[in-house]
Amino acid sequence: MTIAKAITKAMAVFEKEGRGEIRAVKLLECYGRGNNIASASIQIEYAIDGDYTESDNAPYIVNVSDGLGGIIAEQAIFY
Predict the structure, then answer these.
(1) DSSP letter at 77?
(2) What distance in Å separates the CA atoms of residue 27 and residue 42, rounded to the nearest whole number?
(3) Whole-number pLDDT of residue 78
(4) Who's near 63: CB < 8 A, 6+ residues apart?
(5) Cβ neighbours around 44 below 10 Å, total
(6) Partners of 46 in the beta sheet?
(7) pLDDT digits (tens, 9 = 90+) for 29-62
(8) pTM of the model
(9) Core vs surface per residue 48-64: b (16+ CB within 10 A) or e
(10) Are 36 and 1 within 8 A, CB to CB?
(11) What are 36's strand-pairing partners?
C-alpha cells in the first residue's frame, strides 16, 4: 500500500468514531520498501468545537498494516 492509502484508512477509522474534526495527520513511522509500505503508525490530531485539549491529552493513533487478508486499520490502545 502507499502512504496516502494508509493515511486514508487511518482517517476513516477516526471519522467512524465521530470524535471531532481532523486538524492534522502525522506519519509517526512506517515500514516497507519504496512506495510499497507494509505497516504504518499514524497520529490524528483533532479538535472538538475548536479545542485541542483532548487531542493533546489523548493522542489518537491508528496502526495500518497490509497483509494477506488485505489492509487492516485499527486504533492503537495504550494502557
Answers:
(1) -
(2) 5
(3) 64
(4) 39, 40, 41, 42, 73, 74, 75, 76
(5) 23
(6) 22
(7) 999 988 889 999 999 999 988 888 888 888 899 9
(8) 0.87
(9) eeeeeeebeeeebbbbb
(10) yes
(11) 33
d(C-alpha 30, C-alpha 73), whole Å: 13
Question: Does pLDDT of 79 surpass 70?
Answer: no
In DSSP notation, 6-46 reads HHHHHHHHHHHHT-SEEEEEEEEEEEEETTEEEEEEEEEEE
CB 10 within 8 A of CB 62: yes
Residue 3 has pLDDT above 80, yes or no: yes
Q: Are 58 and 76 in contact (CB under 8 A)?
A: no
- At 67, the pLDDT band (50, 70, 90 cuts) reads confident
| CB contact set of 37 (below 8 Å; sequence gap of 6+) | 1, 2, 3, 6, 30, 31, 66
